TrEMBL record, chain A:
Molecular function as annotated in GO: phosphorelay response regulator activity; transcription cis-regulatory region binding
Entry keywords, A to Z: DNA-binding, Phosphoprotein, Transcription, Transcription regulation, Two-component regulatory system
Protein name: DNA-binding response regulator
Record-level GO cellular component terms: cytosol; protein-DNA complex
GO BP annotation list: regulation of DNA-templated transcription
Annotated OmpR/PhoB-type domain residues: 125-222
Response regulatory domain sequence ranges: 2-117
PROSITE patterns: OMPR_PHOB (PS51755), RESPONSE_REGULATORY (PS50110)
InterPro entries (alphabetical): CheY-like_superfamily (IPR011006), OmpR/PhoB-type_DNA-bd (IPR001867), Sig_transdc_resp-reg_receiver (IPR001789), WalR-like (IPR039420), WH-like_DNA-bd_sf (IPR036388)
DNA-binding region: 125-222
Residues with the 4-aspartylphosphate modification: D51
Automatic annotation (TrEMBL), chain B:
GO molecular function term, any single one: phosphorelay sensor kinase activity
Matching Gene3D superfamilies: 1.10.287.130, 6.10.340.10, Histidine kinase-like ATPase, C-terminal domain (3.30.565.10)
Spans through the membrane: 12-35, 110-128, 135-157
Catalysed conversion reaction: ATP + protein L-histidine = ADP + protein N-phospho-L-histidine
Keyword set includes RNA-binding: no
Database matches in Pfam families: HATPase_c (PF02518), HisKA (PF00512)
Family annotation (InterPro entries): HATPase_C_sf, HATPase_dom, His_kinase_dom, HisK_dim/P_dom, HisK_dim/P_sf, HssS/ArlS-like
Keyword entries, A-Z: ATP-binding, Cell membrane, Kinase, Membrane, Nucleotide-binding, Phosphoprotein, Transferase, Transmembrane, Transmembrane helix, Two-component regulatory system
Protein's UniProt name: histidine kinase
Membrane topology: Multi-pass membrane protein
Length: 223, 413
């Protein structure tokens, strides 16, 4: 993955580069908005990590320029100390794909980068890939270790939701909303669907990938 | 609101005019009858003095000069209907009969202490009663004309009198861009004073809000940038040193500072004052899932009883911070591996075991700023801030200790 970090603070910039390099990703650092815009026009990045408080051109204007001028729709993750609702709303309005307030956990930055590229990949190829799991949204098929999984329609929705949210957990309420909308039946219905899904995704294999979180939700455990 | 004031003034003016007109109509009607009666009595009194004068001269009762007046020595010669009425009330001076007669009677006293009765049958003199239909029609026509005129004037006056207020309200309602200063028109009267006061107060308020926004944004940036550097450095250190205890402690302290800063900023911002109906169960579930890793690391079991759809009036951001504070507190200070959590429609209870011997501070004092138990390694602001958040949303937070159990109850609005 190729990442552009736009950060005027030299220490934070260096820390981000060091951490992201350790993930074996290629990282470029731009300390001004002008440089970031120019780099985005010359090169293709998978993700731009953008600070909002920049000297010269403000981060919001940089985001707008990247989204309008770059040939490719590069996902932008805003990293900023501005945490007021109004600032977040402005950020998303100018085209940000995600927003993380300082001080952030570097591991979360990495996870969000993965999630954003996954979302981008899904838009381009209709395919989600998490560890051993592969899911094709176009023909609604799923595989684990290239072995096809015979999923019901509801099972497919649950697995897709879990894969899209990975590594975050998904609450029962969100899953039920994705499956049944506002017409939610009792929670036993979800229980039986989860049982069927586990029979298909986990039972025939050595390791269980679907993990229950404190009876509140589920997550994929790929590690 | 604007049309409401105009309508109210218009209605009140019209109603006032109708009531005044009706009162005058009734008063005029009464005056007409009184004048009619007074005319009849004047005629009768004139005839009475003629009779008394003649009797004094001739010692005989004369014949009445008008054909509708008759003179009677006593009641026996009066018409039967009049006699019957006098039997009922001897002092009556005016009688109506069923056959259309209307009598007025006067008792005459002469110089020789004798008396007589002067009776007048006056239906032809009752001008008002006879013309009542025509008069009523005339009154009605005049009343309708006056009413229409009154409605027109009421409408006109309501527009004129309310116009400055309506204009002022419109100007204020249009000045909804909080970034721009308010500029209201000049009015020559009391409205002008009101407008200039409003303008000055609104501009002061907007300036203060802008200053607050800039201040919190600047402070947020200045505080969070070095915290980010420390957090990142600890993260990088941790990945190199493999879970070092000292680094973990620094991480914990950093999380405390971050949490405190987030709560303080949330409380300081005007946006936190906005309340709505929030889904407490969903927010708490999210808080638990956010803290899932810490729960697992500490090997804590949450014994939860959550009402499926607990809702309350509050602020989403503040509620999440509050529940996060309470759960983090319980996770950190529980001396056993189970935390009891109950969420009902009315309240939220979180209870954990604690070491009684380390609890040197009275329970009530824990809600004060900077107060903490001996075991606590935090800043001593966690519960104080939690209480402030609760108060901000009109909720109530209480502490309770019993048999080595520390319980916090949160009552929703």
């Amino acid at each position: 993955m190729k990442i552009l970090v736009v950060e005027d603070n030299p220490v934070i910039g260096k820390q981000l580069v060091e951490f992201l390099n350790a993930q074996r990703w290629t990282v470029d650092l731009a300390t001004t908005g002008e440089l970031a815009i120019s780099l985005c026009q010359q090169e293709i990045f998978d993700i731009v990590l953008l600070d909002l408080n920049l000297p010269g051109i403000d981060g919001l204007a940089v985001c707008q320029a990247i989204k309008h001028k770059a040939e490719r729709n590069t996902p932008v993750l805003m990293l900023t100390a501005r945490d007021a609702f109004e600032d977040k709303a402005k950020g998303f309005a100018t085209g940000a794909d995600d927003y993380l307030t300082k001080p952030y956990d570097l591991r979360e930055v990495a996870l969000r980068c993965q999630a954003l590229t996954r979302r981008q990949d899904l838009l381009r190829s209709n395919t989600l890939q998490i560890g051993e799991l592969t899911l094709h949204t176009a023909d609604r098929t799923a595989f684990r270790h290239s072995q096809p999984l015979k999923l019901t329609q509801t099972g497919f929705i649950i697995l897709k939701t879990l894969m899209e949210a990975y590594p975050e957990a998904v609450s029962r309420r969100v899953l039920m909303h994705n499956i049944w909308g506002d017409d939610i039946p009792d929670s036993d219905a979800l229980k039986s669907h989860m049982y069927s899904l586990r029979n298909v995704v986990d039972k025939p294999f050595d390791k269980a990938l679907i993990k229950t979180i404190l009876n509140l939700g589920f997550k994929l455990d790929i590690s | 609101m604007i049309s409401g004031i105009k309508k109210r003034v218009f209605k009140q003016l019209t109603l006032f005019t109708i009531i005044t007109s009706l009162l005058f109509l009734a008063f005029t009607w009464v005056i007409a009858f009184v004048v009619e009666d007074e005319v009849i009595y004047a005629v009768l009194n004139n005839e009475a003095s003629y009779v008394q004068q003649t009797y004094k001269t001739t010692q005989k009762l004369p014949n009445a000069r008008a054909d509708f007046i008759s003179i009677h020595q006593d009641q026996t010669s009066l018409p039967i209907a009049v006699q019957n009425q006098l039997k009922i009330n001897e002092r009556s001076k005016e009688f109506f009969t069923d056959d259309g007669h209307h009598f007025h009677i006067i008792k005459l006293k002469f110089y020789d202490h004798t008396s007589a009765l002067l009776l007048a049958d006056v239906p032809h003199l009752l001008v008002v009663s006879r013309m009542s239909k025509q008069l009523m029609l005339l009154f009605t026509i005049v009343f309708i004309c006056c009413l229409l005129l009154a409605i027109f004037f009421a409408y006109w006056i309501s527009i004129l009198s309310v116009k400055p207020i309506v204009n002022l309200a419109k100007e204020i309602s249009d000045a909804n861009d909080v970034q721009q200063p308010v500029q209201l028109a000049n009015y020559p009267d009391e409205i002008g004073f009101l407008a200039s006061t409003l303008q000055s107060n609104m501009n002061d308020l907007r300036t203060t809000l802008r200053r607050e926004k800039h201040f919190t944004r600047d402070v947020s940036h200045e505080l969070r940038t070095p915290l980010t550097i420390i957090a990142n450095e600890l993260q990088l250190l941790n990945s190199q040193m493999q879970e070092h205890t000292n680094v973990n402690r620094m991480h914990e302290a950093l999380n405390d500072i971050n949490n405190t800063i987030s709560v303080l900023f949330a409380l300081a911002r005007a946006e936190s004052l906005q309340s709505e109906i929030i889904d407490l169960t969903a927010i708490f579930e999210q808080v638990v899932m956010d803290l899932y890793q810490e729960i697992e690391q500490r090997k804590i079991v949450l014994d939860m009883s959550l009402f499926e759809k607990a809702q309350a009036m509050g602020n989403q951001t503040l509620t999440k911070l509050l529940l996060n504070n309470l759960l983090t507190n319980a996770l950190r200070y529980s001396t056993e591996h189970t935390i009891q959590i109950t969420l009902t429609e009315k309240h939220f209870i979180i209870a954990n075991a604690f070491e009684d011997s380390l609890f040197t501070v009275p329970t009530d004092h824990l809600l004060s700023s900077g107060i903490r138990s001996e075991k606590s390694t935090g800043l001593g602001h966690g519960l104080f801030l939690s209480q402030r958040i609760a108060e901000n949303m009109g909720w109530k937070l209480t502490l309770h200790t019993d048999n080595n159990t520390f319980a916090i109850t949160l009552y929703f609005k």
